[in-house]
From TrEMBL:
It comes from Lactobacillus panisapium. Its cofactor is Mg(2+). The keyword Magnesium applies. InterPro entries: NUDIX_hydrolase-like_dom_sf, NUDIX_hydrolase_dom. PANTHER family: GDP-MANNOSE MANNOSYL HYDROLASE. The lineage of its organism: Bacteria, Bacillati, Bacillota, Bacilli, Lactobacillales. It comes from the Bacteria. This is NUDIX domain-containing protein.
Length: 132
């Protein structure tokens, strides 16, 4: 089981994604990762976001949205405009051929990038536009 958090900044109308460049691949992912031991999806999401981006979330801040192939997606609002630095295992694994780069991606750019999995862009837009 994996858990990911769609971190939405309503002031920027953007979500925080991780730009990956790995060997010859160039794509984007929602931050998150795999469960440890008997973690719940929510616990995994909180731990992974803290480890990867040093953003501390509480269970009440996460709204579970949907599940795609055993990956749980949550949504939270986050109003910091600065892009956090990558940390944890991702920072340790970063090399010139294995890049992890957080960035704010506006909703208008979302359909123009290579977000993985491919069906995710439309799901994110539907959820966020429903809230606007």
């Amino acid at each position: 089981m994996r858990a990911r958090v769609i971190i939405y900044n309503p002031d920027l109308t953007a979500i925080l994604l991780i730009h990956r460049q790995k060997k010859q691949r160039n794509y984007w992912v929602v931050p998150g990762g795999g469960a440890k031991r008997s973690e719940t999806p929510r616990e995994t999401a909180i731990r992974e976001i803290n480890e990867e981006l040093q953003i501390e979330l509480t269970p009440a801040q996460l709204r579970q949205l949907f599940v795609i192939d055993d990956e749980y997606f949550f949504l939270t609002d986050y109003r910091q405009k600065a892009v956090p630095d990558i940390s944890g295992e991702e920072k340790e694994r970063s090399t010139s051929t294995n890049v992890y780069r957080p960035a704010w991606v506006t909703l208008s750019e979302l359909l123009k990038i290579n977000l993985m999995p491919p069906a995710l862009s439309n799901k994110i837009l539907a959820v966020i536009k429903y809230r606007l």
